[in-house]
Specification:
The complex is a heterodimer of chains A (258) and B (90).
Chain A lengths: L19 H15 L5 E5 L14 E4 L5 H11 L4 E7 H7 L1 H9 L5 E6 L29 H4 L5 H9 L4 E6 L3 H16 L5 E6 L3 H4 L3 H15 L3 E3 L11 H6 L6
Chain B lengths: L8 E5 L2 E5 L9 H5 L6 E6 L5 E4 L11 H5 L5 E5 L9
Antiparallel strand pairs in B: 1-2, 2-5, 3-4
The chains are: A alpha/beta (258), B alpha+beta (90).
Chain lengths: 258, 90
Amino acid sequence: MPRSWATENKPHRFCPGCGHPLALKALGEAVDDLDIQGRVIFGCDIGCSLLAWDFFNLDSVQTHHGRTIPVMVGMKRARPGLICVAYMGDGGGYAIGAQHLVSAALRHEQITVLLANNSIYAMTGGQMAPTTLPGQKTETTPFGRDPEKTGRPTRGPEMARLLGGEGVYAARGTVANVRQLKNYVKKALRHQMEGRGFSFVEALSTCPTNWRTGAAETWEWVEKKMPAEFPLGEFGGDAPDGRASRPESVLREGGGEG
Amino acid sequence: MPGKDFAAHKYVDGRGVFYLFPALCKGCGLCLEKCPVDTIGWTERTGFLGTSTPAPGFGDPCIACRLCEFVCPDCAIRIDKIAPDKTRVH
């Protein structure tokens, strides 16, 4: 168990087989490796991600509907020495709270966002989310999601990178590969600590309860079906020649809001 | 911060020592499916939710790759590698 996890309230409240604790394991191990436990503020959103409110031995705050990002932005602006991590699900980040993600990426806010994408609204019983895969059956799409009627799934890291330009570190990992996800989270935290701008990591996650899958189908979903729609990897961060890309250079070149 | 101690079921198999914490295991079965040598299977010992708990010894010997430890959402598994016997002549 990562050192930054609080052991008193384990076992945690997530369902059996949930991907959230795996994403939080990656975050916890990244915090341990960077030895920044005393400086990190952890903010969680509403939805299943709120069950993480007492997950860590970190100062934590819980907010509603994607507002974790502006709360963390406020904390970072008031106390720039802190390392602010906003944790949310795909419903909070891409649907009702998308405006905050967009604004934070555009303004190069110096925070890290970790978003768990399980392609469904899990806490409310499995309705269609912005990230629901084409053809996926949910409570509100009983015949499978039809992209003709409801559009394509939202791709967050690509969007954040497009909006913010070079100063944004965006990556997509998966809970099927916690080591890779941990490296992405570490890079994102370093990005923030070095003051290089907004960092965003999406973790492809699991929801066996609402997908109604057993363990084998759960792995098939998250390892095969989801990466086919959501490509894994990093979308920017350091410039190709190895120099650290800074938001100021983006502004100077007219690539940002400037 | 005062820690909480969890009692473990201990199994020795192949190249690893497999510790299973029944107070954390929710019986999701992700470890069974991820194991590359299919050594993990269900036992009759139950976890805190009344579900079966996993243990090694059902397939090829454990290679101590620690994949089950990495993918356990509840941190209910710990793998210790058994140090190779250096006195043995190959």
